[in-house]
């Protein structure tokens, strides 16, 4: 590895030989020679998945021996961000070649399609902004300065122009951070940039999170049992969609997410009878948002009650164990399915604020009002932390059993002692 005194970056010997005629840190050569080693000489643009050759024999070749870490001058500290923190802003034009489908399927499937598209949109916006700055003023000093101070300033300016809430600003910074972290999966040969290792970036993110906690959040209106039952009947009588009715009922009794239940198979649901003859459903959440976040599958067992007519007959008609309970093989089909659930909830009750998220929020709040403890609610929802659960309980305004107990004890704080005790 050799340190370039012009751009402050460490370059491998192979990269220097490849661009020996024009040094890569010279501004006019950035577009042709990106500021990191490329996998091939021709890979300056988007590379398709087919070109990568997922099943090629080259995967079995032995890896090259690792090089010794570079020597740093006295006073310099090696961080995971390293010399990339000094990468000039001008070099970010290469982000215009970002492609959400660049990496092989086994790599990109770790993130949802929507997440990958969101990351790529951010990278393209950064590249367009840098190109606009260069076209208007090629001598702009900011183009030769480190990228992180400009990136923070640019995001702050976008938030002001678009009048973002602090929660949106925090989410955008988190998405940008993730996009640069997974940059090798979007741009060929790119390094991983861990923006969180920069102190200024850490403090900016902390400011956004702290301000966001003080804002009033926009949350879905919690649904009630009567509203969900009306929506199920509406799906049967008006929409002629028994699958929508069954999905509404299952989502409600499992405190679940509609998108997770839409990915359930028949073998994930076990129907049985309790001693009183009531139908009980045990549903195991095997797929969905919680599972993608690394949480283990969890099972919710509840009686069907008034939702049995919409669920039992529909599930009994599904004979194959590995068959999906609803037909939603693609992202587009799942979006249509969730849209039909929204239509049933809103049209059946005449309340446009109802949506699929209202099911999970309403069922958990009803359990809390019935006297469930935080521990019980965590088992019901499958959350890994109390912090996430409290958002569904309107940040404690819907009290759990512990809060009610604490409220009764708090009477001591507002009760004056009796005269007899005062005399003592």
Automatic annotation (TrEMBL):
Has keyword Iron? no
Q: Where is the composition biased (Acidic residues)?
A: 52-62
What are the BP-aspect GO terms? DNA integration; DNA recombination
Keywords on record: DNA recombination
Which domain of life, per UniProt?
Eukaryota
Spell out the residue ranges making up region: Disordered.
31-76
GO MF, any single term: DNA binding
Q: What is this protein called?
A: Tyr recombinase domain-containing protein
Q: From which source organism is this entry? A: Neobodo designis (Flagellated protozoan)
Q: What is the lineage of its organism?
A: Eukaryota, Discoba, Euglenozoa, Kinetoplastea, Metakinetoplastina
